[in-house]
Predict the structure of Cu(I)-responsive transcriptional regulator.
Amino acid sequence: MATAAHSQAGAPVSIGTAAQRSGVSARMVRHYEGLGLLASVPRTEGGYRQYGESDIHTLRFIKRARELGFTMEDISELVGLWHNRRRSSARVRQIAQKHLGDLEARIAALQSMQQTLAHLVHCCHGDSRPDCPILDDLAGEA
């Protein structure tokens, strides 16, 4: 959970400006705030959210973590570790190592699917005959 104080450097900005500057949609900014990934931001008397530089920086951090495929649970922990200046990098490495292993397993599964499908496409004549090894495989008849 994010606990960093809002930066007072520069004037607070609206959700639209924060979204544009961070590269995250306004809808996702609200979502991340609701999940606790972004500290609750102050509001104007009219109820409009006001974001500081630290909020925008946190949004960029979250966006980059999402681009790398981390889960929301992992991102929550990583944001907390990032804001904790007394953290140990061992936990950060552990999270990243686990994610790397998950990615490697998914890549291996995708490569296996690719090889199987390439073989089936190669075996299919693609002509006017009704015989089709692709359909046979999908039906469990191969």
